[in-house]
Amino acid sequence: MTSPSILLPGDHVPSDVLPSTTSAPLRIGPGLRLLYQQQEPQSKTSPSAHAISATHAGLLSVDQKRNAISVLSFPNRRYIPTPNDLVIAQVHHTSQDYFHCILTPHTPHALLGLLAFEGATKKTRPMLKQGELVYARVLSVGVGAGTEIELTCVNPATGKAEPGGLGPLTGGMLFDVSTGLAARLMKASSSSAEGAAGVVILDEFGKKLESKGGFEVAVGRNGKVWVDCSGSGDIAVKATIAIGRCLREMDERNLDPNEQRKLVSKVLREMKIDV
């Protein structure tokens, strides 16, 4: 369920809109920061007290079923790194201990440790070159302007790559979208219900391209979408371009689910891809 409340940076989330479930911990999503939490609820029927503030402007989204709360950013907001964000980074250069990566243009480089990959050693670590892409998670963000942003491709607690295909992205094509659409795509991918967050475009392509081998997709909250079709030859290239084209057009025109389905069919016809 989505609340119509609009939050600005520093605003506190009203306690009466928080999920009432006490059987599971509250999941705090992007755009919010936990200030403090009362350890014991006053009663079994009342939730623990949380003090939560917004770190950027957006619409407050409350999911009672998942016991989660987050902020949906405005579509064209610039990306502000937040710990645990999934991002697509581009390698700029390598130093003795780090890959220096670009998250967004004209911003300080993010640091990705040379050994921040599952099972990586000095001999087996990925040898990423300038311009190559990597799917990573924001590990930490310093305080203040110009501070370091650190990325990782493993779970620090286990040393294992997390579900979701973290690591180098080989092949495929990269497309730029708004941070708002990126957030919606990620929300839709985490939901089992078709059309979550008003996005059906990737589901529609999945159905129509299944006979062509399907495709892989990685979405970064920094407004990047990587697409790689599994087919071979011209069909794979055309299908990849078709997906990117539809994402860009959907983003620019703010299409609803029915319009997205029509757009997919139209673009596939224009690209002469038989499905």
From TrEMBL:
Organism domain of life: Eukaryota
Record-annotated membrane-spanning stretches: none
GO terms, molecular function: RNA binding
Domain K Homology, chain residue ranges per copy: 172-230
Gene Ontology biological process terms in this record: CUT catabolic process; exonucleolytic trimming to generate mature 3'-end of 5.8S rRNA from tricistronic rRNA transcript (SSU-rRNA, 5.8S rRNA, LSU-rRNA); nuclear polyadenylation-dependent rRNA catabolic process; poly(A)-dependent snoRNA 3'-end processing; TRAMP-dependent tRNA surveillance pathway; U4 snRNA 3'-end processing
PANTHER family for this protein: EXOSOME COMPLEX COMPONENT RRP40, PNAS-3 RELATED
Keywords assigned by UniProt, alphabetized: Exosome, RNA-binding
InterPro entries in the cross-refs: Exosome_RNA_bind1/RRP40/RRP4, KH_dom_type_1, KH_dom_type_1_sf, NA-bd_OB-fold, Rrp40_N_euk
Cellular compartment(s): Nucleus
Protein name listed in UniProt: Exosome complex exonuclease Rrp40
GO cellular component: cytoplasmic exosome (RNase complex); nuclear exosome (RNase complex)
Domain Exosome complex exonuclease Rrp40 N-terminal: 26-77
Chain spans, region Disordered: 1-22
Listed Gene3D superfamilies: K Homology domain, type 1, Nucleic acid-binding proteins
Pfam families, alphabetized: KH_6, Rrp40_N, RRP40_S1
Predominant location: nucleus
Organismal lineage: Eukaryota, Fungi, Dikarya, Ascomycota, Pezizomycotina
